[in-house]
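Per-record layout

source: Hanamia caeni
name: Rhomboid family intramembrane serine protease
length: 218
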Amino acid sequence: MSITVIIIAITVIVSLFAFKSQRVMDDLIFYPAAIIEKNQYYRFITYGFIHADLSHLFFNMYAFYLFGGACEDFFVYVFGNNGKTLYILLYFLSLIACVIPDFNKHRTNVGYRSLGASGAVSAVVFAYILFRPLQGIGLLFIPIFIPGFLFGIIFLVVSYFLGRKGGGRINHSAHIWGAVFGIVFLLIFSELFSSYPLLDNFIESVKSLDLRHIFTTY
């Protein structure tokens, strides 16, 4: 069984338990004040295995399923025997990295909490985009796809402006920092532990794009 499927299964099980138990939800959620006051640093990880509701859980795990399996295969191809270990490391470190800005910003805010795997999923999606920058990516139920690297740019820009606007329940900051972490992680580790020309391949793929065929439909 793939690492992606195992993570999805654990996340679904834990999330379902949390839906039925407020105590489980409270114990696992990302809560900076509790981390500071009670040294509950495990919350940097556990919050990624609970979700606000079924739709939140579905969209995160569906996106993770769509990109995670292929990304995991790329990791094995590029890093060999270390591929699955580095893939696990990417996922769990991105859970931590994407909420560090929130932790620093809300460390004394007793009313702030966050949950969900979207930051880690963003890291996986953007790692996939580095491998396959021209692969068409679109939105659910909308049959229009654009090259992954353009989708990534649009995603980051929109997330930035929505985050500045505020007023919603979506943690856009976690999306942005998760995506950035996924890119940086993969670039660093491919340079240190692989001869695969990741950045060169990305650049050459982008340069080869025919702008006349930027959109695809299915």
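summary: The two ends are 30 Å apart (CA to CA). The chain has eleven helices and three strands.
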